Amino acid sequence: MRDISLQLLAWYDANAREMPWRVPPNARQNGTLPDPYAVWMSEVMLQQTTVAAVREYHNKFMALWPSVHDMAAADDADVMAAWAGLGYYARARNLLKCARAVVADHGGVFPADYAVLLTLPGIGPYTAAAIASIAFDLPETVVDGNVERVMARLFDIHDPLPKSKPVLTARAKQLTPDTRPGDYAQAVMDLGATICTPRNPSCGACPWQQPCAANAAGTAAELPKKTPKKKTPTRHGIAYVVQRADGALLLETRPASGLLGGMLGWPGSEWGDAPEPAPPLDANWQTLNEQARHTFTHFHLRLTVMVAKVDARAQARRGSFVAAPDFDAGALPTAMRKVFDIAAPTLRNT
DNA sequence: CATTCGTGGTT
DNA sequence: TAACCAAGAAT
């Protein structure tokens, strides 16, 4: 059984993808391991996020906060602003919590232990196994979407996810070798990302073509099965963009938990079927023709954009004015940035 | 155990 | 255009 793991490692030696946070297989076999901080940063960013999207964010974060001590001492608003656009903002909040826990409780050193890693904020079963194996070369088994798909095909398992996850996890553990577990973890995920893809898998180029049960049965492309999900509803809301005579814009920091938690945004109504107007101040509001459309994981959002210009003495019922030189649309989550993009021409022309 | 939580690319 | 998908975690 284990010899097929070695086959995969041989494939990885020749086909490993290059990533800024990764130590290539030849260097790893010479005894070089990656910086656990960089690995942790990458794995948190990679949760439900593509490698392509993570690259520049990882570079930026490593430049701004090169060590876990820097991250622990970082200003929360700076980290949230730097994370803007990457999504799943609870990850950024947990990034700070985790860094501070590592410094406060673990002497500023990431623990080389799966069970201890699992106790840290934002580190679940996948990420704990990824850090343990990739950063410390411990024989832990990563089970992400790639591994689930590869195992479902390798063993021709037709039970739908997520119910089948325990079986897929057990299979993945059976295959994890004692030698080079870190490279092996990265190898299975690379295989899933480049060969054993969700659609149109390149079975002809797969190092596991021979042992693959789904390839033999001709079922690879239809695996893994998944329980169908319900369709996403549409919610509506109103976003208010206020500009003061000196150019300052009215923004508010959203509540620390929930959707876009801790992020900067425009004051607005609740989001639902028929939102009640909730202007942050009394003004001569102008409703723009174009709505901001944005899709979250579980609903579509259509925001009506309302714009007002107010004088320098204006007082808002909520939010706070941000001076024009301090405003950075890049610090907004995408839904809010779309609102700004729609409002910007009107702001300039009035 | 089901739901909540982003975003951009692909089909 | 709508659905699907990506190195999941927290509740």
TrEMBL record:
Gene3D superfamilies: Helix-hairpin-Helix base-excision DNA repair enzymes (C-terminal), Hypothetical protein, domain 2, Nucleoside Triphosphate Pyrophosphohydrolase. Belongs to the Nth/MutY family. This is Adenine DNA glycosylase. It comes from Yoonia tamlensis. Binds 1 [4Fe-4S] cluster. Adenine glycosylase active on G-A mispairs. MutY also corrects error-prone DNA synthesis past GO lesions which are due to the oxidatively damaged form of guanine: 7,8-dihydro-8-oxoguanine (8-oxo-dGTP). Its EC number is 3.2.2.31. GO terms for molecular function: 4 iron, 4 sulfur cluster binding; 8-oxo-7,8-dihydroguanine DNA N-glycosylase activity; adenine/guanine mispair binding; metal ion binding; oxidized purine DNA binding; purine-specific mismatch base pair DNA N-glycosylase activity. Pfam families: EndIII_4Fe-2S, HHH, HhH-GPD, NUDIX_4. It catalyses: Hydrolyzes free adenine bases from 7,8-dihydro-8-oxoguanine:adenine mismatched double-stranded DNA, leaving an apurinic site. It is an enzyme of class 3 (hydrolase). Its cofactor is [4Fe-4S] cluster. GO terms for biological process: base-excision repair; mismatch repair. The keyword Kinase does not apply. Residues 45-194 form the HhH-GPD domain. InterPro entries: A/G_AdeGlyc_MutY, DNA_glycosylase, Endonuclease-III-like_CS2, Endonuclease3_FeS-loop_motif, HhH-GPD_domain, HhH_base_excis_C, HhH_motif, MIG/MutY. Keywords: 4Fe-4S, DNA damage, DNA repair, Glycosidase, Hydrolase, Iron, Iron-sulfur, Metal-binding.
